[in-house]
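Example for tutorial group B:
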């Protein structure tokens, strides 16, 4: 077995790593994990299980994702890693000038202006078409059943549902948001833990997507309803925007970190931030995890990588620098030299040359999937298309209103995207999928779980349970309340503005599945900060 698979967790946990041989599904919601496992037992592969789980999560965890969101995936199958970019583009007729004419100097978080074309249904259809074994009608059946018959709301879900409801009730008072409240707060409040919530409209929409392999969403009855709702309320999204949506297969990008290849989706995703930080950190030696020196260097590296990401990353065709330039060893060395004993104020360099669900699946055939989808900022835009249950995302909120910025708002463009799936290989063989959801925490979570695994030998559950930190801006760093006080003090002594955060969900929610190359045994970990479950077979 790999050395990090057998070690017990040194942190307080509710469970140790989970082991299985035939298959595994790891998600933040038990019912979704079980749905994916049921598909494996019906003869589906890891790709089918990922689709089933993702669709199910739109029902059983609507606080984090929905049918109207985006998705990305890394798929290991047939001895190769494949990348899927299923993020949607901005409406063709939107522009900085049009948004300013509507009375906004900044892109709002809610309403029609930040709505981009949803990519998740296209992701499910494309994955099923290219690599799936079972028909989409069978794969989406668990999600359809839960939406139609209802399910008992889980504790963490109810907490964030209430938080979202309270915020929307206070701020979203226009009639355009009425359908959100009818759908997600039918009793004029968020459902409590253990209460049954259902969405028959959601079920009918999933059925339509299943029966048409996603076509109805982009070029059929669902597209017509979305476009009509947009037109009625002055939105920029049109039927033409939906019809022109395309899900793209892309070549994943990677860096080699101490003999392991760490893989991410290329921009417009922010996975490149995690890779650049690891590329900087591989020039240092780390002998102790719980040390001020280790945390200081990690924080400084992620600050430098984020400064570059926020200055240079957008859709690849609009970037000034190529991914290879940003991830070059030469550039990593120039950034590494900026790290001293004191906290720095990060600035972008010049290279030469977020509410989300994450899931991981694996099967006995060797297929493994790293999949992530989101509406962004919890429930997204606050808009639900009448009669469909479709909660629309607000990804356009990440565009810049500065016309000179690489990520400037423009029609038909993909924005800088926070959601990122990760994958680990060694010697061209799969180790497995990993991910940590949660807005701009995601690259930071990727860095921390990769180093916990490779540098410090922690098993999947321990790698996730370890106390986390999150760089926020400038020299401000939040740490979990169980983060060592002496470590927090040591970082403060080096100039970091350390703030203790009591809310554990602020630090992301992750899943990991590793495969032993000799035995094929799967080792999984799930997030202890939420209702996460590993379903083994």
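The residue assignment follows.
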């Amino acid at each position: 077995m790999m050395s990090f698979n057998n070690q017990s967790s040194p942190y307080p946990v509710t469970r140790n790593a989970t082991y299985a041989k035939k298959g595994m599904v790891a998600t933040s919601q038990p019912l979704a994990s079980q749905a994916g496992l049921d598909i494996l037992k019906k003869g589906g592969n890891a790709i089918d299980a990922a689709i089933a789980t993702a669709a199910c999560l739109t029902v059983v965890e609507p606080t984090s994702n929905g049918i109207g969101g985006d998705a990305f995936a890394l798929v290991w199958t047939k001895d190769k890693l494949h990348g899927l970019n299923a993020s949607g583009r901005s409406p063709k007729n939107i522009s900085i000038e049009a948004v300013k004419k509507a009375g906004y100097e900044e892109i709002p978080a809610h309403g029609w202006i930040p709505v981009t074309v949803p990519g998740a249904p296209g992701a499910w259809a494309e994955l099923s078409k290219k690599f799936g074994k079972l028909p989409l009608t069978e794969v989406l059946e668990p999600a359809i059943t839960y939406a139609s018959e209802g399910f008992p709301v889980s504790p963490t879900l109810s907490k964030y549902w209430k938080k979202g409801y309270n915020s929307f009730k206070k701020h979203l008072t226009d009639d355009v948001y009425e359908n959100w409240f009818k759908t997600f707060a039918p009793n004029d409040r968020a459902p409590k833990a253990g209460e049954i919530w259902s969405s028959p409209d959601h079920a009918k929409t999933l059925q339509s997507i299943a029966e048409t392999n996603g076509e109805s969403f982009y070029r059929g009855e669902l597209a017509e309803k979305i476009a009509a709702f947009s037109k009625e309320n002055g939105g920029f999204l049109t039927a033409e925007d939906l019809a022109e949506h395309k899900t793209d297969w892309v070549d994943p990008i990677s860096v080699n970190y101490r003999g392991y290849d760490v893989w991410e989706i290329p921009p417009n995703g922010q996975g490149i931030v995690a890779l650049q930080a690891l590329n900087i950190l591989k020039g240092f030696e780390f002998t102790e995890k719980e040390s001020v020196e280790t945390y200081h260097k990690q924080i400084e590296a992620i600050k430098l990588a984020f400064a570059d990401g926020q200055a240079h990353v957008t859709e690849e065709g609009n970037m000034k620098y190529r991914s290879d330039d940003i991830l070059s060893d030469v550039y990593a060395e120039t950034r590494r030299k900026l790290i001293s004993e004191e906290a720095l104020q990060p600035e972008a360099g010049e290279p030469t040359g977020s509410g989300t669900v994450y899931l991981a699946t694996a099967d006995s055939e060797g297929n493994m999937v790293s999949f992530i989808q989101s509406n962004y900022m919890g429930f997204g835009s606050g808009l639900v298309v009448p009669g469909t249950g479709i909660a629309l995302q607000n990804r356009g909120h990440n565009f810049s209103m500065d016309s000179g910025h690489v990520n400037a708002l423009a029609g038909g463009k993909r924005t800088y995207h926070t959601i990122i799936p990760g994958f680990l290989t060694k010697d061209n063989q799969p180790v497995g999928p990993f991910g940590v959801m949660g807005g701009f925490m995601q690259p930071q979570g990727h860095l921390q779980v990769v180093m916990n695994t490779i540098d410090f030998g922690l098993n999947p559950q321990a790698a996730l349970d370890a106390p986390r930190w999150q760089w926020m801006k400038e020299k401000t760093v939040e740490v979990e309340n169980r983060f060592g006080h002496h470590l927090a003090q040591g970082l403060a002594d080096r100039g970091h503005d350390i703030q203790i955060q009591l809310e554990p969900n602020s630090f992301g929610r992750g899943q990991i599945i590793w495969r032993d190359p000799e035995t094929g045994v799967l080792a999984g970990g799930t997030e202890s900060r939420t209702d996460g479950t590993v379903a083994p077979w």
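The mean pLDDT is 93. Compare this with the pattern of hydrophobic and polar residues in the output above.
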